[in-house]
């Protein structure tokens, strides 16, 4: 998987610099200092490589959103409709989870 991620980074750089239509598998292989045939071992064409870039990026983004959502729901769990003492404890718990300068409200 490490090699595929290195290819992803190089391909993303080429796509960004030249645009998808102008990018070539030759240029991606060159940027990796890899033989073009070795690149085709991992990806059969440029379209498959672009799909992998998008799929990996989307998975990473979704994992980040899930992590944030679970932190927010955990910190708010049980904090609604309580006495001021309980609310204070919930507020302290939220500050601990989100850091001194961030609150669950700011994270929304």
Which features characterize this protein?
108 residues; mainly alpha; Arc Repressor Mutant, subunit A; 2 domains; elongated
Structure description:
The structure is a single chain. The chain folds into two domains: 2-66, Arc Repressor Mutant, subunit A; 78-108, no CATH class. Helix content is 76%, strand content 0%. It has helices at 2-18, 25-32, 36-42, 46-76, 84-98, 104-107. Helix 1 (2-18) packs across helix 2. The radius of gyration is 22 Å and the shape is elongated.
Task: Please describe the topology of this protein.
Layout: H1 2-18, H2 25-32, H3 36-42, H4 46-76, H5 84-98, H6 104-107
Helix pairs in contact: 1-2, 1-4, 2-3
Helix content: over 70%
The fraction of residues assigned to DSSP E strands is under 5%
- Report the principal-axis shape: elongated
Which spans of ≥5 residues are poorly predicted at pLDDT below 50? 81-108
- The helix/strand class is mainly alpha
Mean pLDDT: 78
User: Number of DSSP helices?
Assistant: 6
Kindly state the number of beta strands. Answer: 0
**Helix and strand pattern:** HHHHHH
Alpha-carbon Rg, integer: 22 Å
Task: State the end-to-end distance.
Answer: 34 Å
Which CATH class of the largest domain is shown? Mainly Alpha
- The total domain count is 2
Largest sheet: none
CATH superfamily of the largest domain: Homeodomain-like
CATH topology of the largest domain: Arc Repressor Mutant, subunit A
CATH architecture of the largest domain: Orthogonal Bundle
């Amino acid at each position: 998987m490490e090699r595929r991620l290195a290819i992803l980074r190089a391909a993303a750089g080429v796509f960004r610099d030249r645009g998808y239509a102008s990018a070539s598998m030759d240029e991606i292989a060159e940027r990796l200092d890899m033989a073009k045939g070795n690149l085709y071992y991992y990806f059969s064409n440029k379209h498959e490589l672009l799909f992998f870039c998008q799929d990996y990026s989307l998975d990473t983004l979704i994992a980040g959103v899930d992590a944030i959502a679970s932190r927010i729901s955990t910190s708010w769990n049980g904090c609604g409709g309580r006495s001021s003492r309980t609310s204070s404890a919930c507020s302290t718990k939220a500050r601990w989870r989100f850091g001194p300068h961030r609150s669950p409200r700011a994270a929304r």
